[in-house]
Design goal:
The protein is an alpha+beta fold and 1067 residues long. The protein contains 35 helices and 28 strands. It has four domains: 155-383, Calcium-transporting ATPase, cytoplasmic transduction domain A; 447-473 and 787-1043, Calcium-transporting ATPase, transmembrane domain; 486-513 and 640-778, Rossmann fold; 537-634, Calcium-transporting ATPase, cytoplasmic domain N (3-Layer(aba) Sandwich), CATH 3.40.1110.10. The strands form six sheets. The chain has an eight-stranded mixed beta sheet with strand order 13-26-25-24-14-21-23-22, with helices on both faces. Residues 19-29 have a biased composition (Polar residues). It comes from Sphaerosporella brunnea.
Length: 1067
């Protein structure tokens, strides 16, 4: 019902309980486009919001007195009189609304009200009808009339048409104290998590299909079918067992990797700030919110659920996701929508899940979660639309296409897709090699030719490549999480190791984020401060929040004791001082003092004050103009203890560090010198551009920026737009950059950077959503650890790729040249049997490759320049090395076969030796065993040799190990790889010597003197590999090019850097 209450009657109304979590009041701020509010500060309620007075907030948001009754006349609902223009009807003419749903006269006791009174925003010419009402009338009111509407009961569906207290009553929650944890858990159990229904997720059958449908498995299935077709049940059964083993191992590893990634993603899940358990403020995962929770939101947050707002301060949200409206929408907690069907964009008392808070802060009660939110309904509609789009056939084709892409590995990170395409290329090469084998037999395809062709096809495919990559990257994300870095996008994991420039914030990242007041210049500040501390008679009237573009904020309070309205302002000196009511020479003196304080590394705040008229409280321009100077406060934010060493490590690693800060230029310069971003000595040509203000940098054209010898190391008074320009300037220089950020306005720069890093502690949800990585400790040193981990992963991926491809190249060389060895019937003899190839590829190589994926960072990983991400893992060094080592291994295997067959057996290859053992196959079977042993042992040696592409195996860690036993310590350092090598060595013996098992399954037999050939081949292989590494070190090729740094050995440089770091940076 509508109650037109005079001021005299207000006191007789039942006392209401004002909500005072944060002192939020509805104040219309001027249009300053603020996007970076500070956290809420508890303040007293404004105006006439005492416990014995309801709030009177009509349209326009300014309280007005109530001193008279209005006429109440019942009229039919379809009879509406519109008020005339104020010019015709007198000053202050407006609209009066009568609701006769309860048929209560103006004289009725306010005890008949359905709930606590609240003001309502009513547009002129608007008909407001209560759900209980049958009649509505509109007439003319005087300007001193307050419109009050008693709260109608909440129907559970339309919270925007009733008072917030009615919503709270229906939901059974006290807006001041929130839900109890036990009640929240019960609701969560009943309603489920607050998240949208996932269209995908981890499905075990999807992972299983990926294992079955890869190219290796297809080739093995063909080989199995061919074996069974030729009635070779033993070989067919062994291949079937190998297929099952490969699928089971791959499934377990891949599924664990997926679960690991899912658990790590949950660490960066959105966090909601709730009020529970008698007003206690707590932070929980947004997905744990339930209907009835009281939620605090502020600028930068992503709204975690649909909320009915009941307190707000300058609150605006971006609802483009729902409404398409590009401009933020202001929110008014006391607004009540005229009807349930009004557009979403007009529901000014609601904020919606997944929208973002672009300004201000507020409190709201959750009215919908998960798929019941507005965005959840849209998601459901889109899902249904997608199913209907194009009809049943188009949907079927789309699903089949997506399934094929997923099975072939063409969905994932760029590196995963690239390697999946590489595997498909190898599959094509396998088919080509099989065609070559059949062509060599002049297409007279028999059982043996078919098996030989399949052998060559199997040999060329690195079966464990994708599985090892997935496991390595999953473990890498887990390692980063332990180092306080959460990976939100997997491509960042691949890319972070190649960064060339880091653009970092200062406050809280390079520094501790603790503002310690070191110095103060006090004029009128002491008196005012004492006044503020000693009196509790202050009511907040308005707050004009901080904005990174204007670098100041102001508040307006009413002092009840003096009955004065007083404004206070603080901000950057160069922004505040020009607005002060002082003569120019006095302003110059203040600026000089600011410069002196800033030169000491202090962050200087200028504080000002004045008294104003109450009517001017909402006008920011009037509030902040012509204030009186109170004083200066010099705040010191000390650098983190680990920052200087982290910056030093970046310099050694060839990564440039830039500080982009909002601080004064002299403050920024002092801190940059302190942490080592700026050195003591600087070339004269760079001195003028190494430190710049954002205004100076932004004034340069792109051509002028590109003409600078180097980009600035420090940019002070930096704005979000300056960060974007810096990223673009780095990209034009072909640099690969990291950008850090925490505010809403940092999102464009984070999105445009190659790797965007958001702050986990101080960062906004919007910044986190735009970022690739999230720092859980906001520490610059964690960024450096992420770069190191990224380089380690990149190196390890190169290592196991090289190892797998060396094995494949050697087998292809051996088998293709082996076509020339023909038995008495003119049939090509296998130098390796199909099962020997499968054993080497799936048992020996797979675990070695996984061990290389777990290899720790190389000693010089942070003493060499960043790798070129445009080239990727297949660098020229990798291509040349794998080709050289693979051909060498293949030639040694071939030579071993020739020596055993021709030197020990007179060159007799017997007959039918590809199918089974007979009396003529002794030489061939011993030769195969010798080749199998040579190939297995050379792969074991290669696993240790590729730990570093240029350092000798015998001197791989000279910084830690020296002497003749250093090689053993190096080999034992990676325990997984060590035991994989030991197991590979040990298992070779039973494969060769177990009777029947050797001749029937593997088609080889025990050997004796042939072990001398195996040892000789291993020695020759080590000589080739070590010789090639020595040549690379001598010529400075590839990774060995990092060894020489101006003629100084990198090991010496590392040792010197350690000494420097250990002495606090003093050589």
């Amino acid at each position: 019902m509508v109650n037109l209450t005079p001021a005299s009657a207000a006191s007789s109304s039942p006392a209401t309980s004002p909500i005072n979590h944060s002192g939020l009041v509805t104040v219309q701020a001027s249009d300053e486009g603020c996007n970076d509010d500070p956290p809420p500060i508890p303040q007293p309620l404004a105006g006439d919001s005492r416990a014995d007075h309801p709030r009177h907030v009509p349209a326009g948001g300014v309280s007005i007195p109530v001193d008279q009754h209005g006429d109440v006349t019942a009229r039919p609902a379809n009879l509406v009189d519109f008020a005339g223009e104020p010019a015709r009807n007198g000053p202050g003419a407006g609209v009066k609304v009568y609701d006769y749903g309860a048929a209560v006269s103006p004289a009725s006791s306010s005890d008949d009200l359905a709930g606590p009174d609240r003001g309502v925003y009513v547009d002129s010419c608007t008909t407001v009808t209560s759900p209980k009402s049958s009649f509505t009338a509109v007439g003319t009111l005087t300007e001193e009339t307050t419109i009050e509407i008693a709260g109608d009961p909440y129907d559970g569906v339309n919270p925007h048409v009733v008072d917030a207290d009615a919503v709270a009553t229906t939901l059974g929650v006290d807006l001041r104290s929130g839900l109890k944890t036990a009640d929240a858990k019960a609701k969560l159990q009943k309603d489920g998590l607050n998240k949208l229904a996932a269209g995908g997720g981890i499905a075990w059958y999807g992972v299983l299909i990926r294992q079955i449908s890869n190219s290796l498995t297809l080739v093995l299935v063909i080989a199995m079918a061919a074996s069974y077709g030729m009635l070779d049940f033993i070989e067919g059964s062994v291949i079937a067992a190998v297929i099952c083993l490969n699928i089971v191992i791959g499934f377990v590893q891949d599924y664990r990797a997926e679960k690991t990634m899912q658990s790590l993603n949950s660490l960066s899940a959105p966090i909601a700030t709730v009020i529970r358990n008698h007003g206690k403020i707590d932070k929980i995962k947004a997905e744990e919110l339930v209907v009835g929770d009281v939620v605090k939101i502020h600028v930068g947050d992503v709204v975690p659920a649909d909320l009915r707002i009941f307190e707000a301060m300058n609150l605006e949200t971006n609802e483009a996701l729902l409404t398409g409206e590009s401009l933020p929408i202001a929110k008014h907690p006391d607004y009540v929508a005229p009807n349930a069907d009004c557009p979403i964009g007009d529901r000014q008392n609601m904020v919606w899940s997944s929208s973002t808070v672009s300004k201000g802060r507020g409190l709201g009660v959750v009215v919908a979660t998960g798929m019941n939110t507005e965005v959840g309904r849209i998601a459901e509609l889109l899902r249904g639309k997608k199913e209907k789009e194009g009809g049943v056939f188009a949907t079927f084709v789309r699903k089949c296409t997506d399934s094929v892409k997923n099975m072939l590995g063409l969905v994932g990170t760029p590196l995963q897709v690239k390697l999946s395409k590489f595997a498909l290329l190898l599959f094509g090469i396998a088919i080509l090699l099989a065609v070559i084998v059949f062509s060599a037999a002049k297409w007279r395809i028999n059982d043996e030719n078919l098996i030989y062709g399949i052998c060559v096809a199997v040999a060329v495919i690195p079966e464990s490549l994708i599985a090892v990559l997935t496991i390595t990257m999953a473990l890498g994300t887990k390692t980063m999480a332990k180092g306080n870095v959460i990976v939100r996008k997997m491509q960042a994991l691949e890319a972070v190791g190649g960064v060339t420039n880091i653009c970092s914030d200062k406050t809280g990242t390079l520094t501790q984020g603790k503002m310690i007041a070191r110095k103060a210049l006090v004029e009128g500040l002491g008196e005012i401060t004492q006044d503020l501390l000693s009196s509790g008679d202050w009511d907040l009237l308005a707050e004009h929040p901080f904005d990174s573009t204007i670098k100041k904020m102001s508040i307006v309070h009413h002092h009840k004791g003096r009955d004065t309205v007083e404004a206070f302002m603080k901000g950057a000196g160069e922004v505040v001082v020009p607005t002060l009511a002082l003569p120019e020479h006095k302003k110059a003196e203040i600026m000089e003092r600011i410069e002196n304080l800033a030169g000491q590394g202090l962050r200087v705040l200028c504080v000002a004050h004045k008294r104003i008229d109450r009517a001017d409280a909402a006008n920011r321009a009037l509030v902040e103009e012509g204030m009186n100077f109170l004083g200066l406060v010099g705040l010191y934010d000390p650098p983190r203890s680990e920052t200087k060493d982290a910056v030093r490590r970046c310099k050694i690693a060839g990564v440039e560090v830039h500080m982009l800060t909002g601080d004064h230029i002299r403050t920024a310069t002092a801190i940059a010198h302190e942490v080592g971003i700026l050195g003591d000595a600087m070339p004269a040509a760079l001195a003028s551009t190494m430190v710049m203000t954002a205004s100076a940098f932004d004034a340069l054209s792109d051509a002028q920026v590109d003409a600078l010898p180097e980009l600035p190391k420090v940019i002070a008074r930096c704005s979000p737009a300056t960060k974007v320009r810096m990223v673009e300037a780095l990209h034009r220089r072909k640099a690969f950059c990291v950008m850090t950020g925490d505010g809403v306005n940092d999102s464009p720069a984070l999105a445009r950077a190659d790797v965007g890093i958001a702050m986990g502690l101080s960062g906004s949800d919007v910044a986190k959503d735009a970022a690739d990585l999230v720092l859980t400790d906001d520490n610059f040193a964690s960024i450096v650890r992420a770069v190191e981990e990224g380089r380690r992963l990149f190196d390890n991926i190169q290592k196991f790729i090289m190892h797998l491809l060396i094995s494949n190249i050697s087998q292809v060389v051996l088998l293709l040249i082996g076509l020339a060895f023909q038995d008495r019937n003119g049939v090509s003899v296998f130098p390796l049997s199909p099962l020997e190839i499968l054993w080497v590829n799936m048992i020996t190589s797979s675990f070695l490759a996984l061990g290389l994926g777990l290899e720790e960072a190389a000693p010089d990983v942070m003493t060499r320049p960043p790798h070129d991400l445009r080239t990727g893992v297949f660098t020229w060094e990798v291509i040349i090395d794998k080709t050289l080592y693979g051909v060498t291994m293949g030639v040694l295997c071939l030579a071993s076969f020739i020596i055993v067959v021709y030197a020990g057996n007179g060159g007799d290859l017997g007959h039918g030796c590809n199918h089974a053992y007979n009396d003529t196959c002794g030489g061939v079977f011993r030769a195969r065993a010798t080749v199998f042993a040579v190939l297995s042992f050379l792969l074991l040696l290669t696993a240790w040799e590729v730990k570093h592409f240029s350092r000798s195996l015998f001197r791989m860690n000279p910084e830690e190990y020296a002497g003749p036993l250093a090689v053993f310590k190096t080999c034992y350092r990676n325990r997984f790889l060590f035991w994989a090598v030991v197991a590979g060595f040990a298992i070779t013996w039973p494969v060769i010597y177990v009777p029947k098992f050797n001749t029937v399954v593997f088609k080889h037999m025990a050997i004796g003197w042939e072990w001398g050939v195996v040892v000789a081949a291993c020695v020759l292989y080590l000589m080739v590999v070590e010789g090639w590494k020595a040549i690379k070190r001598w010529r400075g090729w590839g990774s060995a090019g990092y060894v020489k740094n101006g003629g100084v050995d990198v090991e010496m440089l590392t040792a010197a850097a350690t000494v420097v770091g250990g002495n606090g940076g003093k050589a």
